[in-house]
Amino acid sequence: MRNQKGFIEILFVVIVLLITTTTIFLYTKGFFSKSFLTKNKLNVSKLECPLLPGGFVGRIVDLNPFIFEVLDYSLQEENDNLSNLEYVNIPGGFLYYSESTPQEFKNISLESGNLISGRWGVVLNEFVSDVFEDISKVPNVEKFCTPEDKLKNIKRDSPIIVALSKTEGFGDTLFIRKDESYFYRDYYTNEVLPRNIDNKKVHELKEKITKLDLDKYKSGYKYQTNANLILINDTEAKVISFSVDNLFNPPADLTKIVTDLTNLREEILENSKYKLKVHSKYEINKWLSADPPNSYTREVRSEILKRDYPNIYKEVLKKHEGMYVFYKYEGKYYYLWLNSSNGSLYSDGDELKIYEGKYSGYSLWKEKEIRLRDISNDSIEIDKSVMDRNGLKVWLEKDNYYLDEDSFYVLDVVRF
Question: What is the pTM of this model?
Fold first, then answer.
C-alpha cells in the first residue's frame, strides 16, 4: 500500500512537471493568442537590454489616432525561438499610426510624450504587438539600449513636429524635428542627405507649424489611414493627420505650409546623389538552332537545351529556384526562364526589345567612361546626368536591364 501511495505521488509530480514544461514551451513559441499576451503583460521595473528581437521603445505622439515614433529597436534575428511571429527590422524615424488606441491603454492615463515599449511582429503582412508597456517611469529610460551613433536620424530628446509623406505607410517621407534637424527617406527607404539647403527655410517652417492652432484643424478634418501629413505641436501635445490631396478648401496658412514642405522635399531630391551597383551579370549565349527560341514549343525547346546546352540544362535541374538565361540569334536577343519540376525542364520566355521593362526589355549602356564590367562588388557614385542619359531609375526591385559589351547587367541604383 505504501509503495502504491509513493507511486501515485511520483506520478502526480511527473504530470505537474509535464504540464508546466508544456505551458512554458507553448508560451515561448507564441501559441497563445494575442489577447492572452496582452492581459498578462510583464510588469516592467527596468528596461532590459539588449531589446528582444522585434522589441522597440517608442514615444507617443497622440492617442486618438494612436501614433508613436520609434526611438530604439532591435534588429531581426534568424531562427528566433521566442515566438512564431516573423519579426522585422524597424527603420529609424518610423512613425506607426492606427485609427484606434490599443486596448491595453484604454484604462491608463497616457498622454503625448509618454514612453512605451513593445514587441513588433508581422502576421499576414499586418502589424501586431505581443505587449505594449508604459515605461515612462522606468529609471534611466532616456538612455534606452542602443548607442546614439548606431541609430540614424533618431533624436530621443527632440520630437518630430512634421511628417510629410506622398504614400501610405510613410515610405516616402520628410521629417522635421523640434530642434530643426531633418531628413528625407524616399519611397524605396533610401535615406537622402539634405545638401545645399538653406536652413532658414526649415526654421521658418518650424515656427509656422508650432504656431498653428491644431485644435481647430483636428476638429475640422477626420483622420484617414492614407494620411500623408502629420503636424505635431509639442507644446500643446496635439496632432493633426489627414490626406493633403483630399482637403476641400484648405485654409491658406495650412496650404502655405504644405507647399513649403513639398518644395523642400523636391529640393532635397534635386540635390541627391546616387550609387550604382551591378546586382547581377548574364553572359549572352549564341542560339544554335535554325529558328529563334520563342518559335519552339516548351517540350521541343527543352530538348534543344538538353542537346545544345548540357551544362545549363544540368545546372537548372539541380536548382530549387528558377534561373534566367539569355541568347542572341540573328542580331536579336532572347531570354528564357528555366525551372525544374519533377526532373523535367520548364522553359518560358520571349524576345528582348530595347525599352525599359522588367524581364521583357533592356536599355543600351551609353556611358563611354563607365564600363559596367569594371564596376566591382562595391558601388560607384554617379550623378544625375548619368541617371538621365541612361534612363536609370531607383527601383525597389532589381529590374534595370542593360546591354554592355555582349553581356546583360541588372543594375541596382540607390539614392543617398
Answer: 0.69
